[in-house]
Amino acid sequence: MRYTIKNKIVSFGGSSTVRDEAGNDVFIVSGRVFTFTKFKTVRALDRTPLFNIRNRFFNILLPKVYLMNEKGEIILTFKKRKFFSLRQNFDIIPAPGLNLNYTIDGDLIGRHYDILENGVPVAHVRRNFNLVKDSFYLETDLTEKAAFFVAFVIALDNYYDKLQEEDR
To answer: Per-domain residue ranges for the chain?
Structure first.
């Protein structure tokens, strides 16, 4: 199944729409207007929160992004593997007690990357750069984990947005 995640052109807080390959809305990504941590929530169509994503407030060298469950408990922490690296490889650190083994392997600028579970590719993401808005294409056969993978994509988008803010 292929999902399209498009940032809205006019949105306060960084909201996005998520559609399936038939063009039907499947998830809502809503952001908060006044937040320093780029807090976003992946919601079902009935507005029920599924996952929360937020950046770490203070960073020394590399930003960190947290993926949390609907209760606000951290599930995964994303951080870039190396400060100077030609590839966009990330360490994905599960919360203590969770038996999760995810990695992300991508190209030079984060335009294409795979989400791997236990070393096996489970989703592929293609980032489409645009002057007005970014869009992402997520392909996975694991439709029951689609919201989780959408949260991955939003977390990485938050990471890149944070890097761009620091470059300004």
So the answer is: 2-167
DSSP code of residue 143: G
Q: Please list the residues that pair with 43 across neighbouring strands.
A: 28, 49
Contact 30, 13 (CB under 8 A): yes
Identify the sign of the CA torsion 3, 13, 130, 128: negative
3, 41, 45, 73 from 77: Cα distances, Å: 23, 16, 26, 11
Tell me what pLDDT residue 167 has.
43
Q: Please give the class, per CATH, of domain 2-167.
A: mainly beta
pTM (two decimals)? 0.84
Q: What is the DSSP letter of 82?
A: -
Cα dihedral 65, 26, 137, 34 sign:
negative
Query: pLDDT per residue over 54-76, tens digit each?
Result: 886 555 667 788 999 999 999 99
